[in-house]
Amino acid sequence: MKTMLQKIWERHEVVPETADTPAVLYVDLHLVHEVTSPQAFSVLREQGMKVRRPDLTLATMDHSTPTRTEQVFGGAPIAIASAAQQIAQLEKNCAEFGVELLNLRSELRGIVHIIGPELGLSQPGKTVVCGDSHTSTHGAFGALAFGIGTTEVGHVLATQCLLQRRPKTFAINVSNRLAAGVSAKDLILAIIGEIGVSGGTGHVLEYRGEAVRALTMEERMTVCNMSIEAGARAGMIAPDDTTFDYLQSRPRAPKGTEWQRRVAEWRALPSDAGARFDREVTLDGERIEPMITYGTHPGMVTPISGHIPATRGDAVFDKALAYMGFQAGEPIRNQPINVVFIGSCTNGRLEDLRAAASLLRGQHIARGVQMLVVPGSQQIKKAAEAEGLDTIFRDAGAEWRESGCSMCIGMNGDNVASGQYSVSTSNRNFEGRQGPGARTLLASPLTAAASAIRGRVTDPRELLNG
Amino acid sequence: MDPIRQIRSRTAVLPFTNIDTDQIIPARFLRTTTREGLGKQLFADWRYLPDGSPKPDFALNQPAAVGCQVLVAGRNLGCGSSREHAPWALLDHGFRAVISSEIADIFRNNSLKNGLVPVVVDESTADWLLKNPGVEVTIDLDSTQLRLPDGRAVQFPIEPFARYCLLNGVDELGYLVSQQPVISAYERTHA
Lengths: 466, 191
Ligand code: SF4
Known about the structure:
The structure holds two protein chains of two kinds.
Chain A: H1 4-12, E1 13-15, E2 23-26, E3 29-32, H2 38-47, E4 57-60, H3 69-73, H4 81-97, E5 100-102, H5 112-119, E6 127-130, E7 144-147, H6 150-159, E8 161-164, E9 168-175, H7 184-195, E10 203-208, H8 210-213, H9 217-225, E11 234-236, H10 241-248, H11 256-266, E12 279-284, E13 291-293, E14 301-303, H12 315-324, E15 339-342, H13 344-347, H14 350-360, E16 370-373, H15 378-386, H16 389-396, E17 399-400, E18 421-424, E19 439-442, H17 445-454, H18 460-464
Parallel strand pairs in A: 3-4, 3-6, 4-5, 6-7, 9-10, 9-12, 10-11, 15-16, 15-18, 16-17, 18-19
Antiparallel strand pairs in A: 1-2, 2-8, 13-14
Chain B: E1 6-14, H1 21-24, H2 44-47, E2 70-73, H3 85-93, E3 97-100, H4 105-114, E4 117-120, H5 123-131, E5 136-140, E6 145-147, E7 153-155, H6 160-168, H7 172-178, H8 180-190
Parallel strand pairs in B: 1-2, 2-3, 3-4
Antiparallel strand pairs in B: 1-5, 5-6, 6-7
The structure holds iron/sulfur cluster (SF4).
Iron/sulfur cluster binds near residues 62, 111, 408, 409 and 426 of chain A.
């Protein structure tokens, strides 16, 4: 009786691990972006090595890439010189080493964890790596997907392999269904609140149970995306018909008889009934409320109807509240906000934009609030525009941008100013993550949109119920 | 990489839990294409005032922290982003080892690959170190022991192959490259 992790792991062991040496683990898909790859390509160049499997490697640009249309499609130079240089370096590296690049103006470009699934490259049973911690996203397909550092990016480019020890397994069971107005983002924030920001260290999380089975692929990606925020190496969800339906028509998914053969294989991937996990926890999905963070890591989170906890004399906790400008014991609801960001690899997909638009249709955001809506990929942008979502956002007073990481990470020109409060659908509320001094409250697209309309932290159920 | 057997140094202490890699080096400094010179941006938002002058109360700005090669931090050091710029910045600043009761997975891996020794100790040892900044400690990779000034020796775990690489100053890429024939054989049967 094996877990899904064990099945995938064993199939990818080129050399099994021993007491003295880690396993040599084969990588099926290597995603590359501009920020964590330049030094890896330099090592290959210095050592006169080639990329072993360019056909299993795909590069895009997203992190330091601008989202302003004129900087992407012409009319204005890329405002940040070092970003322009990083983008140029990626173009040069990919051309020199024969790696396919979805470059600045490609209609397939997008955030690295959005494009893999969108193209149908992220598939059940694969090992997927990228020099980025949110690679855990691809685990939504029943893949073993995890983030690596730049040295390891070099290892994979050169040998298509990594030296790894098998992580432990941690089953996260979520019973029942999520209630109306409660989304996948709320679910993963509740899970992180439950197990803590280092609760998953050394483990791969497997999300299971009725509430998880009922999620769409896009929602499953939101959940797996934030596994790293619980300290986990990766997160995964067993593939099922929802997975296969999502993948079937994707351009780079297997076709014809190959598709049939693969699906038969994928059906055998889920953990066997009775397989043992190293750890296990159970949550009741029905009892989860919309969640929002109040502190400086994703574990400092509360149901939106809740209060900021009492301090307990913990200096680190007090430092976090001082940074956020919050008082222990006060409610989080109705806190005034300045900025709303909808986007990122957590919540920048079409369903997320639709959810936000459902509340913003015919509404206007509160005076003084700045709102940025940034689709996760150029394809999502196009699909959203075909549905008229961009018009809804613009009419509501929000800005609509080209795809990229944008305000998720303060390195591409889209920043939250010091001291300002931002309700953000991204994944990290660390000090300065959205810019020096920025105060981030992580929440779902529904909560972000509701808060934009009121200019205060708002439970979206108040607007959904009329 | 130079072989590492022993590190002997006074400690600098940051008594905070969950120090994430965005604190170790903020994202705006990652727009670089080399790995050099990141030390001056280490902990930039904690270390400098907006005008660029050092914050007087930050631990690493104290005279006592100058020359310290060992950084002690609270539980779950290095959580968050996979940026290898974090260990690069720590090394460039002059640190050669970090000690905590828990070190996040990717940061620990990245540290090992660059010769920054990650030392995980039990809570009570970590507490003692957090409360006694500036003590001289010895990290011994041969015996995998951390020695404290009162004579205590605390065993710490380290992945055996990573330890071998550190002790011998070799990097893992060479080992992986030597596996190419096995990798090719795997590709033939698993394509
Ligand atoms: S959107 Fe944010 S978390 Fe996702 S890859 Fe970009 S910077 Fe990282």
